[in-house]
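fyi for ur records
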Amino acid sequence: MSDDNCNKGDILIVDDNHTNLGVLFDFLTNSGFKVLVAQDGESALQKAQLANPDLILLDVMMPGIDGFETCRRLKAKPSTRHIPVIFMTALSDTVDKVRGFSFGAVDYVTKPVQQEEVRARVTTHLTLRKLQKKLEEQNQQLQREIEERCQAEKKYRSIFENATEGIFQANLNGRYTTANPSLARILGYSSPEELITTIMDIGKQVYVEPMRREDLVALMQKYDTLNEVESEVYRQDGSTIWISENIDTVKDENGNLIYYEGTVAEITARRKDAVSLRDARKRAELLLLNILPQPVAERLKKGERTIADSFEAVTVMFADLVDFTEFSSQISPTELVEILNQIFSKFDRLAKQHGVEKIKTIGDAYMAVAGLPKPQDNHAQAIAEMALDMQEAIAQFNTETDACFKLRIGINTGPVVAGVIGIQKFSYDLWGDTVNTASRMESQGRPGCIQVSAPTYELLQEHYNFERRGSLEIKGKGKMLTYLLLGKKGAISKLPLSP
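which gave:
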């Protein structure tokens, strides 16, 4: 095994079968992991406590305490509860799996184990564990920073309120009867006397909002105290600031308001910071929605660590600008990006129009899917309509710009797995044979045409016109029957027939 710097993670294997133990030990060691072994539950608990491995592969059926009980004890201890546990068992009953997950396991491997499956699952959960640790560290650092800022704010607030806050008393006629120098300074007057003699109507001369004082008086009639009431006010020079008022009311024995008094603090900077923070959060949320589908973004914001879903029936489309690589060598980078932006922006609008989820762009290629993240029955029709509209859009673009671009589009229907990958830059992507076949439909299609697979054809044949292209040798798939989508039945096709 290589040195510790190449160690991919520490794994504890718990299995009473010497053969299984040896095979897994050799395989995982050769794969770059540091491996510890235990042959029963008691030994596993001790070694987990001492070694604190990154992951535990735990057999269910063992002498003494079985795997379920071992897992329960591991999760009961604060020092080991964080360690991911993957069960290894010949049990395949759903109840047993549910039982394992109820004890805190993160995954299940059915015996006889497949080495590549074990390596894939181990690598996945170690990656997730590392990401979790990193997020925990970042969260701890954030909490420390928040605490430090809170402490600093409390200290600043105490100094500010005790040394510079304005103090006032006002009557029901809307005039200040008492004011201190700080209030005069906050409102831009040279002295309290100037403030009191100048301001004859607080509602009109102080508050920017015309009915603000009337609203506050109504609240004072109902409540004895108003805390941190924020208002925009005029200074003497006509400029505006934001203040926060703490108001106490003085009432007669019948509860009628006689006058009110309180303190004033300027909070213009805080308000600007709050507005900036709110705007920044909105921009961040919009950016997240531009990267991920809304349902997936919401799940990520709620704290889900692993987002991966299986979809039984979706339709995937790849579109490529033919000969764009050669074209790109003839123009400047700025012009290249501008052209791609114009074209892909048209495609983005079409995706939104047809309820299609854009997945990504790869160079001059565009990938989209219908039927996820929310399943839909008309996924094939949605992609077909978008593909036809994309061909019209590129034709219109050629007319407007005197260009001669052609789109080669490939479509396939079937099951996929979709999820979020990445640590620093999230990406929503698709995996599965359906995606690979859709890509082949595009790469081995014809310029200016929309090539679809047989499964897609079966879903669309009643409502769309097709030209049967015949069986093609598709790389990695062998002979496949393919069709060219021409347009809706009853409509004049705008797409060329295959030469």
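The chain is about 45% helix and 30% strand. thats all i got for now
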